[in-house]
Design goal:
Length: 142
């Protein structure tokens, strides 16, 4: 965050005033060190600095107002909401009904029992396997 006039640095002045007022505050010291290294603070950090600085009686109101203007000028960062959780695989209800109808009449049919295990384990039943089920239903006249 570069100021146009490098002679006036309100954030640095407010930080120095806060260090004089709160010499053992680890929050203020860490903000000061970060500001010296990076040259800027985040909006949340500036808000925390403003709340600490507003408790200092001898700090000029103009510096607080300038700090508040800097905070309002910065953009708000919002995290987008997480998308709705959907299962990766949805069971094909028509295939499930075909399997149930065939197994109701012939519970020991090995191929249909195998397809039922795939269906119950949420594995993909291919279109060829669905065609098989339809043929079984026709052949068995169900």
């Amino acid at each position: 965050m570069q100021n146009k006039n490098s002679d006036i640095d309100i954030v640095n002045e407010v930080l120095e005033e806060c260090i004089l007022a709160y010499p053992v505050s680890s929050f203020i010291i860490s903000l000061y060190q970060q500001y010296q290294k990076r040259g800027s603070l985040s909006k949340k950090q500036l808000q925390g600095l403003h709340s600490k600085a507003s408790n200092i009686e001898k700090l000029q109101g103009a510096k607080l107002a300038t700090l508040e203007a800097l905070i309002k000028k910065m953009p708000n960062r919002f995290k987008s909401e997480l998308p709705e959780i959907k299962p990766m695989f949805e069971k094909d209800k028509a295939a499930g009904e075909l399997i149930d109808v065939i197994l109701a009449k012939y519970p020991q049919h090995k191929r249909v029992v195998f397809l039922k295990s795939k269906y119950d384990n949420n594995e993909v039943i291919t279109p060829q396997e669905i065609d098989e089920l339809k043929k079984f239903k026709q052949v068995l006249k169900l």
